[in-house]
Specification:
Blueprint (H helix, E strand, L loop, with lengths): L3 H10 L2 H6 L5 E3 L2 E4 L11 E4 L4 E4 L5 E2 L1 H9 L3 H11 L12 H31 L1 H9 L4 H6 L3 E3 L16 H5 L3 E5 L6 E5 L4 E7 L5 E8 L7 E3 L15 H11 L2 E4 L2 H9 L5 E3 L7 H10 L2 E7 L2 H14 L8 E7 L5 H8 L1 H9 L2 E2 H10 L7 H16 L5 H13 L4 H8 L22 H12 L9 H10 L4 H13 L6 H9 L6 H9 L5 H30 L4 H25 L3
Parallel strand pairs: 12-13, 12-14, 14-15
Antiparallel strand pairs: 1-2, 2-3, 3-4, 4-5, 6-9, 7-8, 9-10, 10-11, 15-16
Helix pairs in contact: 1-22, 3-4, 11-12, 13-14, 15-16, 15-17, 16-17, 17-18, 19-21, 19-24, 20-21, 20-24, 24-25
Length: about 600
């Protein structure tokens, strides 16, 4: 858990205009900056970035957040990854969960930076070499690729020589070259001498980028019929195959525009599809699809379509992708599987049948529910008890991997129909967590009643200017709680959050903290993000006035209650005089504050 104090310090150091400006072209417009929203298609700018609030807001689609939220939404990073990315840019080291000593954390960070610089230099070298490599250029042209698409993906060429990288790294023996996977160390069995040579030789080079656009690995393809056809970087501190997707950095905006991501099996599929009108394609890196891949994709879009060859190997790869998807299959996500004829990959299919035919294949891809049922039925004979039992046996671990949802219930119903059982029997037999079919579905949790009147005014002022929470004491909260007990917890939660941020509290830091608590404050945060900047001292006076009115209303209610009871006891009369004095004191305060200055 990253401490909230670190998050606040980070947001105080980064400038959201710089962060957003890396990805969106911004122009100054009054106090704010304007640009085209990266989260939906628009022709006139409705996307604003406020340097004073350190917050972005789109008047078109409603997207809003801090610099951290922007990286999460735009780059598909997780919260911790986004924080680390911003921290690195301002020289801060994120407190890791493993609690490494500061010196060791700095050493790890320095090593990672050194490897990143080595990979960047190698990528630049390979791109330069491609310009003069006529055989490599002829190969790419033969595959129908243009120079523009090669430049977009940073394609390069690794020369034939055993140590071509000496041209980039005169100190060819540095450890970073081995650690980055660019060279191989081998002992000469005859002389016992140490030998080092380039891993990639005479290959088309596909740089693999992370979500920040940094080169973290390479895939190299032979130009002739040599083996292996593709050679990938080994696992390194920068590069883990199970965590990365080729082309995701280049495809992010296209995925948003298309409304889905298309997952293929190879580098050339991605580049060729981008050339032929499908830039929303990505590929796994010579390994099976993993749950991390699925998570990364579902951060970018609600619909993912996996494209596989129709042969046995393609079916096996699809099955592994299905298993990786199941923990994230939910009612608001669409996961599909596209199987091309066995003689085709996406590149060859489009070139032979055309883009429209491929588009139809994508549109008609098989839903996860249908693919799962097809997989478990397989060749089993559903006319026999043994065959039906085998189908249930195959289905059990798959359904157990799914979260409780309407989609799982639909699959359970389909399986029950196939195996001549009931959905409740399937859920009981499979011991499914949170069974849906055989228990009454609980009504959805009701949201808090939206705050109204003075209570809403106070909450709104505190969200906009969290430093004002220091002006409030227990009596102010007690008065608000008496006036609107339903939302006392909400106000108390807000005041505690504001006060925990200290004297440096600001809107961006508070918004980031509230985002993690749930949706209760989302509407107010969006509303304030869309408003122009308000004056702190004016807000301070407004808050004091709202608190005073709240106390006045509480006093009036208690006075009316005492009068209605008849003021029959000395204690009641004493309390009446005490409340009347408090009421008069509040009136005088109001007169003083409202005097012209």
């Amino acid at each position: 858990m990253i401490p909230q104090s670190f998050i606040q310090d980070l947001l105080n150091r980064v400038d959201i205009v710089d962060v957003v400006g890396r990805y969106v072209q911004l122009k100054k417009g009054g106090a704010n900056y304007m640009g085209l929203c990266p989260f939906h298609n628009e022709k006139s700018p409705s996307f604003t970035v406020s340097p004073t609030k350190q917050f972005y807001h789109c008047f078109g689609c409603g997207a809003h957040g801090t610099a951290i939220g922007f990286l999460i939404e735009y780059s598909g990073l997780g919260f911790v990854e986004a924080v680390k990315d911003l921290a690195q840019g301002v020289g801060m080291i994120v407190p890791d969960q493993d609690r490494l000593p500061p010196a060791q954390r700095a050493e790890v960070q320095a090593k990672s930076l050194a490897l990143s610089e080595v990979m960047t230099s190698a990528g630049d070298f390979y791109r330069q070499q491609l310009r003069a490599a006529q055989n490599a250029i002829a190969y790419l042209k033969g595959r129908g690729l243009t120079g523009e698409i090669a430049a977009r993906f940073g394609l390069g060429y690794a020369p034939e020589g055993w140590d071509s990288l000496r041209a980039v790294f005169p100190d060819y023996d540095i450890a970073a070259l081995v650690e980055a996977g660019l060279v191989i160390d081998k002992d000469d069995d005859e002389g016992g001498r140490h030998k080092r040579y380039d891993r990639f030789r005479d290959r088309i080079m596909f740089p693999i980028r992370n979500t920040k656009g940094q080169v973290i690995g390479f895939g190299g393809r032979v130009l002739d019929g040599g083996e292996p056809k593709y050679l990938n970087s080994p696992e390194t501190p920068l590069f883990q195959k199970g965590n990365e997707l080729y082309g995701l950095f280049e495809a992010r905006q296209a995925i948003r525009d298309a409304g889905y991501a298309l997952v293929t099996e190879g580098y050339m599929d991605v580049v060729a599809l981008a050339q032929l009108g499908f830039p929303q394609a990505v590929a796994t890196l010579g390994t099976a699809c993993t749950s991390t891949h699925v998570q990364k994709l579902l951060r970018q879009t609600d619909q993912v379509i996996f494209s596989f060859d129709g042969d046995a190997a393609g079916r096996r790869a699809a099955r592994r992708a299905l298993e990786a998807c199941l923990p994230y299959a939910s009612d608001n996500k669409t996961l599909k599987f596209l199987f091309l004829p066995s003689e085709h990959d996406p590149d060859s299919y489009i070139r032979e049948s055309g883009a429209e035919a491929f588009e139809r294949e994508v549109r008609d891809a098989m839903p996860l529910s249908q693919f799962l049922l097809n997989e478990v039925v397989g060749d089993n004979d559903l006319s026999t008890p043994e065959g039906r039992a085998r189908v249930q046996f195959e289905a059990k671990p798959l359904l157990q991997a799914m979260p409780a949802s309407g989609l799982r219930l639909q699959i359970v119903r389909g399986l029950a129909q196939l195996t001549q059982t009931t959905p409740a029997e399937i859920e009981a037999l499979f011991e499914l967590v949170q069974p849906v079919a055989r228990t009454k579905i609980a009504p959805p949790r009701t949201k808090r009643t939206p705050p109204m009147g003075l209570e809403r005014q106070m909450i709104r002022l505190l969200v906009a200017h969290p430093v004002l929470a220091a002006d409030l004491d227990e009596s102010a909260l007690a008065a608000a709680a008496h006036l609107a007990p339903d939302n006392a917890a909400m106000l108390g939660q807000l005041i505690a959050a504001c006060q925990s941020l200290g004297q440096q509290a600001n809107f961006a830091a508070l918004a980031e903290q509230l985002r993690a608590t749930g949706p209760d404050f989302d509407a107010l945060v969006a509303e304030i993000a869309a408003d122009s900047e308000s004056d702190l001292e004016a807000a301070r006076l407004e808050l004091a006035g709202a608190v005073r009115q709240t106390r006045m209303q509480v006093l009036k209610a208690e006075l009316a209650s005492l009068v209605a009871a008849g003021l029959q006891t000395e204690e009641a009369r004493l309390r009446y005089r005490e409340l009347s004095q408090q009421q008069e004191q509040l009136r005088r305060q109001a007169e003083v504050e409202n005097m012209p200055r």
